[in-house]
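TL;DR need structure tokens for one chain.
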Amino acid sequence: MGVNFAIFSANAQKVELCLFDSPDATKESLRIELSECTDMVWHGFVSDMRPGQLYGYRIHGPYEPAKGHRFNSNKIVLDPYAKAIARRLKWTDAMFPYKMGSPEEDLSFDDRDNAADAPLACVVDSSFTWGDDKSPAVPWQKTIIYEVHPKGFTQKMEELPENIRGTYAAIGSAPVIDYLTKLGVTTVELLPVHAHVDDKFLEDRKLTNYWGYNTLSFFAPESTYSASPVATDTLREFKQMVRALHAAGIEVILDVVYNHTAEGNHMGPILSLRGIDNANYYRLMPDNERYYMDFTGCGNTLNMTSPKVLQLIMDSLRYWVTEMHVDGFRFDLASALARELFEVNRLGGFFDIIQQDPILSQVKLIAEPWDLGEGGYQVGNFPIGWTEWNGKYRDSVRRFWKGDGGLVSEIATRFSGSSDLYESGGRRPYASINFITCHDGFTLKDLVSCNEKHNEANGEENRDGESHNNSWNCGAEGKTDDPNVNALRGRQMRNLLSTLLLSQGVPMICGGDEFGRSQGGNNNAYCQDNDITWFDWNLTQDQKLLLEFTKKLIAIRKANPVLQRRKFFQGSIRGRKDITFFNPAGKEMDDEAWNNGFVRCLGLRLAGDMIADRDENGQTIAGDTLMILLNSHLETVPFALPTTKAGQGLAANPGYDRPTSP
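>> reply
TL;DR here they are.
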């Protein structure tokens, strides 16, 4: 019985394994030098060690920030391959490798020991009885994603025992699975569950990094989402959640952050990679290695040109698939992963490796196709095998329903699968992850209710978050008792949900939008672990009606193959059209109508018998023909239905009030 320890560092001079007796220990009980070094991996076997042992490392090497080296053996650093975190970070000045407050601070050297404050890893027993668990493997064209925070989703759910609310156990519980099943979604996308750090500036404001986009460990699940205080129980609880969701036919996708870490810029703390081998793990400025290249807005960017960094990420991804049984990943700021030099390279090493990997190439891969660097907006440019958050879909659909003119052609393209972005590259309609809202920004209710953001609770005097005037023409700002205003807002939410769930591509619902959840106008609630972000399950009558409406929309999508196309519309096939666009007079749209900036009403006929495709079992797909009408005018617009295939005219529709439901 024993444990083999190994850690990569190309520039270290000595590595010591430090063992701790408990999370409360202020110093290590034993130091063991790892004297063996093979291919720049320092390693050693420790006998008679069992799961539950706490540990960290002291890495000896040069402290030369100007040359990219920031070794400081006075600091305990976390194993990048740690599977569980047994003690969270305590913010003290000792967590920084330099003397705070000194001139040119980060060039100075701090010799204080941080053993009492540093996060500690835990040896784990990874055994688990999976039984007959297997991925639901929902085909992309049938996928409906539900993006949700692992804590806020259930923190106030009264059907659950209080001790498991806001945890992995809650998400895997019968009431939650029953809710997701009745809603009809196929896939849960969890905001980051990798162990993360609450920034010091947030703790000083008595806030937290609620979203979790501040990764400390790429392998360890976040322990605060566990119902048990025991670190080794966190893995078991996460696996039980996945197993329960799979048994209900629901996939699990993780939102992952491999573009940067919680160590920040040159003024940041020493937590893990910075103290292990800063020059290898991070992108440094070529003309001054004291500073970091920052394409993420978070102070640093991982070095995707380093083979060991690529290995770390690939090992992490494979671990979550093979050991934790997750079904896919959504990659935060994925453009940063494609930057091998400075420019984004869509055929970079990271994407090549994934594409040929026998495990990862088979799971769902979703890119957030932008970062904060020059040329980082890459919607439509990711390789085959990847899907993308379609920001152009979001923007055009929002503008159309706000009443902006000149969008009828754009909305037709987005509604029918965004072929302009994906078809020429050999991709399918499901390459487009369609969304109206996500965790980052207004909720659907706030989008149609607030003309301005209301982020005062974040402590930045409302300067943070996306700043723009919504101008949705929905009456009074924010919450109101005016029934006419609330009715208009309700219609707009139904319009947006209808568009989302009837469009070609893969719909993603931001959790809570299905019943009109509000964050009080906060469009940057990343630091609000409280009632602002927690779901309030005491639904009003209007919220219950919206929830039922969403369920019906999802049911319509699932029941109609023409809404789940695997191939793009071709227009005309053998003299017949698989998609036809109509004006309110029931006539096909012509060039004049397409170019008329005042037209904000459109009809689409989707031919159910012309899908020209086969399902995953090889059976020919066919279904009902659907007619969908969109009207973003303020006033009622009469819409004459077109003639049927049999040549018989249909009764003219009496007209649709704005906004229109299908």
